[in-house]
Design a protein that fits this description.
The chain is of the alpha+beta class. It has one domain (about 50-365): B-lactam Antibiotic, Isopenicillin N Synthase, Chain (Jelly Rolls, Sandwich). The chain has helices spanning about 20-30, 30-40, 50-60, 80-95, 110-125, 125-130, 180-205, 210-215, 285-290, 345-355, and strands at about 5, 10, 65, 70, 100, 140-145, 160-165, 220-230, 240-245, 250-255, 260-265, 270, 280-285, 300-305, 310-315. The longest helix has 25 residues, at about 180-205. It is globular, with a radius of gyration of 21 Å. The structure holds N-oxalylglycine and nickel (II) ion. N-oxalylglycine (OGA) binds near residues 241 and 253.
């Protein structure tokens, strides 16, 4: 008879579990979680199963019916509207670290085409996708499953097509997968414009000049992670994305209507309800540190799901890795009563540090003064 240990079902007489072997075999397929599901797997393989203590913790923590703030940008063009929006952005960024925006100017058609294009990428012929499967982060386009596959405790139930401009500072359209190239170009172009509006609102909300964050080159380099979360046979045992905060300045997320994204608010998981046409915005770790903890980068995760697939697109504003600029608490925001609590750092070592650890490791401590 088998036994249940802290590491899950050990199967009693079975030989010792070699996790690295399972991980490597999975990675070598180059077809990700979707490939696993397509091959007829009806169980969640052990490498994806969350540690027992996490599963138990979740049972104790109720999921509450609260709503992440929704901010309507429609009246941004008039003075009163603008001031009201700035107030709402500040309030949401301090209390939640998350908000949704509606009437942001990107059409439903562009949003839907993007989601559809990403779905088509992941659902196209394996042989085409496999050519893009890589762990070389200097590539502009990387298709992979679990960027932290070799360092995490439990793998996540998702595959990702990443587009990364943080090395080069520009996007080379030729390198984008043909099947979704045009919709990507259209969406990234529009969402980057919106991200400049949000950086302006956040600058003003923090009491800085409107172009402060833009001039800090927050949006000079970005990574778009285009996720595909296949249907999961046992969604309680694994996660779409483990609990983490984003290592970014700011993140803008487009999600489809399946749901599964949750944020930690006052120690409870709150669903980020899909709203047609809305985009989800969250403050990243760097902006929390620049604000000296005034605005918050909060933990969030994605549940695995029995329905789907789910598609989402996160645009990470990360800055340029080659930038010599120092980032840390903004001097103007500091005073005798509010001294800097973080060191300054440059983006290259900051990112190297992030990528060497499993997603969701405690952050900040490393940079605390
Ligand atoms: C992320 C993330 C959420 C989602 O990519 O960092 O939190 O809904 N994504 O896919
Ligand atoms: Ni995230």
């Amino acid at each position: 008879m088998g036994t249940i240990s802290m590491d899950g079902y050990t199967g009693g007489a079975q030989p010792e579990y070699d996790r690295m072997k399972e991980v490597k075999a999975f990675d070598d397929t180059k077809t990700g979680v979707k490939g696993l599901v397509d091959s007829g797997t009806k169980i969640v393989p052990k490498m994806f199963i969350r540690p027992c203590h996490e599963l138990e913790e979740d049972l104790k923590r109720p999921c509450v019916k609260l709503q992440v703030p929704v901010i309507n940008l429609e009246e941004i063009g008039n003075k009163n509207g603008y001031e009201e929006i700035v107030k709402q952005v500040l309030d949401a960024s301090e209390k939640w670290g998350f908000f949704q925006v509606v009437n942001h100017g990107i059409s439903m058609e562009v949003l839907n085409n993007m989601l559809q294009g990403i779905r088509m990428f992941h659902e196209q012929d394996d042989e085409v996708k496999k050519k893009l499967y890589t762990r070389d982060r200097t590539n502009q386009v990387l298709y992979q499953s679990n960027f932290d596959l070799y360092v995490s405790r439990a793998a996540n139930w998702r595959d990702t097509l990443a587009v990364d401009t943080t090395y080069s500072g520009h996007l080379d359209p030729k390198e984008l997968p043909e099947i979704c190239r045009d919709v990507m170009l259209e969406y990234y172009n529009q969402v980057l414009k919106l991200s400049d509006v949000l950086l302006e609102l956040l600058s003003v909300a923090l009491g800085l000049k409107p172009d402060y964050l833009k001039e800090m080159d927050c949006s000079k380099g970005w990574t778009a992670v285009n996720h595909y979360y296949p249907v999961c046979p046992a969604p309680d045992l694994t996660l779409g994305i483990s609990k983490h905060s984003d290592p970014t300045f700011l993140t803008l997320l487009l999600q489809d209507q399946i749901g599964g994204l949750q944020v930690l608010y006052e120690d409870q998981w709150v669903d980020v309800q899909p709203i047609p046409g809305a985009l989800v915005v969250n403050i990243g770790d760097i902006l929390q540190m620049m604000s000296n903890d005034k605005i918050k980068s909060v933990y969030h995760r994605v549940m695995a799901n029995q329905v789907g697939p789910r598609v989402s697109v996160a645009l990470f504003l990360k800055g340029l890795l080659s930038s010599p600029k120092l980032y840390g608490p903004i001097k103007q925001l500091l005073s005798e009563d509010n001294p800097a609590i973080y060191q300054e750092f440059t983006l290259n070592p900051y990112n190297t540090h992030f990528y060497s650890r499993p997603l969701g490791e405690p952050r900040f401590q490393y940079y605390k003064l």
